[in-house]
Amino acid sequence: MCNRHITYTQAGVSCFVGQESGKFKAQFFVGNSVVKIPACTKRQTVRNQSKKQKNAKMNRKTIFLLIGQKGSGKSFIGALMEKEFGIKFIRVEDWAKKIKKGRNVDNEAYLKQVFEKIENGIRDSLTDKNKIVFESTGLTEYFDTMLERLKRDFQVTTIGVYADSTTCLERVKTRDQEIHINISDDQVVMINEKVRERNFTADFSISNQDKSEKELIHEISKNIGQTIDK
Fold it and tell me: Which of 57, 78, 147, 182 sits most deeply, having the most CB atoms within 10 A of its CB?
């Protein structure tokens, strides 16, 4: 910590005006006012530069966020992005299942906790990865808060995944319930109606209706290939 006496010279006489401290370079009186000069501005500049460098490094990391109805094929496309483009697919539904604890999927406390867990988990995942992909229906204010916070620190590319409601419901009925939250047909219909009503505006879109895996890979590459290659 700095600890030096501060003097100034007037008419050839050196006068003591204060002492350096960790907080102020000097403190002295001018008339009835106290003048304080900040100390160690060099150290503050170094800290600011370090913070900017950290933020720049974080902003180089990319999140691909798949948004769509339940059963639209978000998880399938996420798995394809990992397999074909090497972008780690984070199965956030695993986290949601662990903290559900018998609560309804529309329970406010559960939803708030889920999106907090997802945000923290995504941040942790990006500590050793430059690009990741995860999925969401894009509903509730807690999703909006999470998305806004992630956008502050990372490059977030949103991708809308689309299929008709009948196809979505049939897919939910036949998919592996071990890796998804088990909900009723009525709940699926209700949630998907809300997704369609919101009509989230994404950066890119993928139609996942009656397409082969090869066709989907081509569509992913065509729409977001340049973003993936950065």
Answer: 78
The CA-based angle 176-181-185, given to 5 degrees, is: 85
Tokens of 83: 């397999």
Q: What pLDDT tens digit does each residue of the chain (230 aa) get?
A: 555 555 545 555 454 545 545 554 445 444 555 555 555 555 565 565 555 555 555 568 999 999 999 999 999 999 999 999 999 999 999 999 889 888 888 899 999 999 999 999 999 999 999 999 999 999 999 999 999 999 999 999 999 999 999 999 999 998 876 667 778 899 999 999 999 999 999 999 999 999 999 999 999 998 877 666 55
- Using DSSP bridges, classify how beta strands 155-162 and 62-68 pair: parallel, antiparallel or unpaired: parallel
The answer to whether 110 touches 95, Cβ cutoff 8 Å, is no
Domain chopping of the chain, boundaries: 5-55, 60-229
Structure letter (DSSP) for residue 140: S
Dig out the tokens for 170 from the structure. 């049939």
* Token representation of residue 140: 């509730």
- Write down the architecture of domain 60-229 according to CATH: 3-Layer(aba) Sandwich (3.40)
What is the pTM (predicted TM-score) of this model? 0.74
